[in-house]
Design brief:
- The protein is α+β, with helices and mostly antiparallel strands.
- The chain has a single domain, classed as PK beta-barrel domain-like (M1 Pyruvate Kinase, Domain 3, Beta Barrel).
- The protein has four helices and 14 strands.
- The strands form three sheets. Strands 1-9-8-12-11-10-14 form a seven-stranded mixed barrel. The chain has a four-stranded antiparallel beta sheet with strand order 7-6-5-13, with no helix packed on it. A two-stranded antiparallel sheet has the order 2-3.
- The longest helix is centred in the middle third of the chain and has 11 residues.
C-alpha cells in the first residue's frame, strides 16, 4: 500500500449546499460542519458532534432529505493539493473544506480517478485498517459552486473554462464505504494496490 497523506479535516453537510430552483440555484457552504470523527459505512457518514452525539450527513441514506438514495456517493474525499489549485485560480474565497468533501487529506500531488480506481483505505496511526472506500467517480463541478467561487459573477464563456478546470477530480471524489469504521483526524489515507 502506498500512503497518500494524513487526514487533516473531517466534515459533514447538515443540509444541501445548493438551494433554489434551476437555473437560479446558489451555493452556500455554511451547512458544512467540521468534526473530529466520522462514522463511515456503506450508507454514508455520521459526524461526531461536540456533545459526542452523531449527526447525519445529508448524503447518508438515512437522512430525511438524502441526496444519496442510490448509495453511490455517501462519502466524499478531497485533497489539500486540489484546494491549493482552486485557491490559486479563484482566490482566498476558497478555504479548506468549502467544496463539502467529508474527508480531506494532506498531499502535495494531484489525483485523478485513474490514480484512485483500486480504492483507498483509512488507517490509524499504528497502521490498522479503519475502513476501505471504493472510489466511484469524480465530483463533477456545478454551476452554483463555480459561480460562488467566482464571487457570483457568471458569464457563459467564463463559466465554461472554470467548469473544465474543476472537473476530473479537482472538486473531489465520490466514494462508498466498504464495511464500517470510525475515521479520526490524523488517520492516514493509503492507496489499495492493484
Amino acid at each position: 500500500m502506498r500512503e497518500i497523506g494524513a487526514v487533516v479535516r473531517l466534515q459533514i453537510q447538515r443540509a444541501s449546499l445548493k438551494t433554489g430552483e434551476k437555473p437560479h440555484r446558489v451555493y452556500d457552504p455554511s451547512p458544512v460542519l467540521s468534526v473530529r470523527r466520522l462514522a463511515v459505512d456503506g450508507d454514508g457518514v455520521l459526524g461526531e458532534g461536540e456533545d459526542q452525539s452523531w449527526i447525519v450527513d445529508v448524503h447518508h441514506r438515512a437522512h430525511p432529505r438524502t441526496k444519496n438514495p442510490d448509495g453511490l456517493h455517501g462519502v466524499s474525499v478531497g485533497f489539500t493539493s486540489h484546494y491549493g489549485a482552486m485557491r490559486q485560480r479563484f482566490g482566498e474565497r476558497i478555504t479548506l473544506g468549502c467544496a463539502g468533501e467529508n474527508i480531506i487529506v494532506e498531499t502535495s500531488r494531484r489525483f485523478t480517478l485513474e490514480d484512485l480506481a483500486a480504492g483507498v483505505i483509512c488507517v490509524e496511526a499504528g497502521g490498522a485498517e479503519v475502513v476501505r472506500l471504493s472510489v466511484l467517480e469524480v465530483a463533477h463541478p456545478c454551476r452554483p459552486f463555480t459561480g460562488w467561487a467566482l464571487g457570483n459573477v457568471v458569464e457563459s464563456e467564463v463559466l465554461k473554462s472554470h467548469l473544465q478546470f474543476l472537473d476530473g477530480g479537482t472538486r473531489g471524489f465520490y466514494c462508498r464505504g466498504e464495511g464500517a469504521g470510525i475515521v479520526s483526524l490524523g488517520d492516514r489515507l493509503v492507496l489499495v494496490e492493484r
